[in-house]
Design a protein that fits this description.
Elements (H helix, E strand, L loop, with lengths): L2 H47 L3 H29 L1 H21 L3 H29 L2 H33 L3 H4 L1 H15 L13 H24 L4 H22 L14 H18 L1 H12 L4 H7 L1 H18 L5 H22 L6 H27 L6 H38 L5 H12 L13 H37 L8 H8 L1
Subcellular location: Cell membrane
InterPro entries: EmrB-like, MFS, MFS_dom, MFS_trans_sf, Sugar_transporter_CS
Main location: membrane
């Protein structure tokens, strides 16, 4: 007699779990999709608003600075005032800012709206991950983070293609307008589905910590973004880096004196948490940066269009949303979190070695094997890094943990792009200087900057045959990318070893064993 009631209850529970997954994963999907769509739309934005390259860079920079500076404070706000409340506020702000971006009539208005969009993105990402961690436990949490990783992978994979289609068919404004109906539908669903949760021991907001951390991350992000363009010896870049170091030191001092700090530094004494954070950082350096560099290589080195380059990326990005499902169904029951993390990092490392081996061929098909290997490794890492890190953090501090996770991922992306960009520039400069030792230093600098930016077809120097110069441009461009891939692979090799040494398999057992231990 009770079976139909029990079955109905189980169906209702499953339905509610799926709705929670949608409410927490869809905001992350929006962030990934928006980032890739906007990147593809930048040339159209520049033409429409009569903006030069330096000005249009700030469409990306304003978002990145705002997002990076507020991720950690947003996690603390979620713990203090409630994850559902901050998720609603962040998504509302992101949706409103997207509308303002589409309506922008000038570049300054667009940049201001993008900064507002970044603030909303930081709030909704921290709150969504904290809600996900709080709502699911044991085996269900592993499946939930696998689903989250799949959804994020879909956003990464579809962004370049969707962006190209939207921009070409409807105009760049719709790269932002597309967020408005999705955001409105999600807000309605979140208000009905998500239950309120917060840290019961949270105290007043750590304002000194927020000020020091946000300002430090703002300065270091600004320095990394502008360093390659202005030069690392520039006094403003040096001042920004020194200021960031001073503020980070002050932040550590402030946090050590707080009874309930925004960032509890004691958790970094846990080797497993430290290893998972390192893996998260390495994931950004080894994979997310490649989503910027590889399309440039395909477009500039191979001469492909942006839409074609997006389709060519599919062997690397499709595994990002296929592999997490395989992990959830077949591997998470057999392998520990440590094994999955180190296997993922190792595969990304091997794939980058493939890239380095074939980069000088300047052909697409030799890259495909490396793309598949890198994508498979990244698929193992995408949800696992966040899950393992949160495993050793109390659920009442999940907001803080999600803030650390998001900040680590973003910081790895910014530092990775800046550092690998330096490697790319230095190698191209070395090849050009060796081939043309007698040309004027200023002319050489302009030539290196053109090659690094991918403007291979337009390079020109008086007195040098155009065909010879183009061959040098292509060879130095390929050599620069070979060095970039090798350095990224070396970093991933070190990260693989450290993660294996730091993460404790007893703290990250296969999910069946973990569920049994929790009982």
């Amino acid at each position: 007699m009770n079976r139909p009631v029990l079955a109905a209850s189980e169906v209702s529970t499953k339905r509610h779990e799926w709705l929670v997954l949608i409410c927490t994963s869809a905001p992350s999907f929006m962030l990934q999709l928006d980032a890739n769509i906007v990147s593809v739309s930048l040339p159209s934005i520049a033409r429409s608003l009569n903006a030069n390259f330096d000005g249009i860079e700030w469409v990306i920079t304003a978002y990145m600075l705002s997002f990076a500076s507020l991720l950690m404070p947003a996690g603390a706000l979620a713990d203090r005032f409630g994850r559902k409340r901050l998720l609603v506020i962040g998504l509302s702000l992101f949706t409103l800012a997207s509308l303002l971006c589409g309506l922008a009539w000038s570049l300054p208005v667009l940049i201001a709206a993008r900064a507002l969009q970044g603030a909303g993105a930081a709030m909704q990402l921290s709150a969504a991950l904290a809600t996900l961690s709080h709502a699911f436990h044991g085996e269900a949490r592993a499946r939930a983070f696998a689903f989250w990783g799949t959804v994020v992978g879909i956003g990464i994979a579809s962004g370049p293609v969707v962006g190209g289609i939207i921009t070409q068919a409807f105009g760049w404004e719709w790269a932002f307008y597309v967020n408005v109906p999705i955001g409105a539908a999600l807000l309605f669903l979140i208000l009905r589905v998500i239950q309120s949760s917060h840290d019961p021991n949270a105290m007043r907001l750590d304002l000194p910590g927020v000020a020091c951390f946000s300002s430090a991350l703002f300065l270091i992000t600004l320095a990394l973004i502008e360093g390659n363009r202005r030069g690392w010896s520039d006094r403003w870049i040096a001042s920004e880096l020194v200021g960031a170091l001073i503020l980070f030191a002050l932040f550590i001092i402030v946090e050590r004196r707080q009874a309930r700090p925004m960032l509890d530094l004691s958790y970094f004494r846990k080797p497993t948490y430290l290893g998972a954070t390192l893996a998260q950082f390495a994931f950004s350096v080894g994979l997310l940066t490649m989503l910027t560099f590889v399309p440039i290589f395909l477009q500039s080195g191979l001469g492909e269009s942006s839409a074609t380059a997006g389709l060519m990326m599919l062997p690397m990005v499709v595994p990002l949303f296929v592999v997490p499902r395989v992990v959830s169904r077949h591997l998470a029951h057999r392998l520990s979190g440590r094994a999955l993390l180190t296997l993922g990092l190792l595969l990304v490392c091997i794939g980058l070695c493939f890239f380095a081996a074939v980069a000088t061929m300047v052909e697409y098909w030799p890259l495909v094997a490396g793309m598949l290997v890198v994508g498979t490794g990244a698929g193992l890492l995408n949800g696992e890094t966040t899950k393992v890190g949160m495993t050793v953090i109390p659920k009442e501090r999940s907001g803080m943990a999600s803030g650390v996770s998001g900040t680590t991922r973003f910081t790895g992306l910014v530092i990775g792009i800046a550092a690998l960009g330096v490697v790319l520039y230095a190698r191209i400069h070395g090849i050009v200087a060796q081939a043309l030792p007698s040309i004027d230093a200023a002319a050489r600098l302009r030539l290196v900057q053109d090659i690094t930016a991918g403007r291979l077809a337009s390079v020109a120097l008086p007195g040098i045959d155009a065909a010879t110069l183009h061959t040098l441009a292509v060879n130095s461009f390929a050599g620069g990318y070979q060095a970039l891939f090798l350095c990224a692979a070396a970093f991933m090799a070190v990260a693989t070893w450290l993660t294996w040494k730091l993460v404790n398999p007893a703290e990250t057992p296969p999910i069946g064993i973990a569920a049994g231990q929790s009982k």
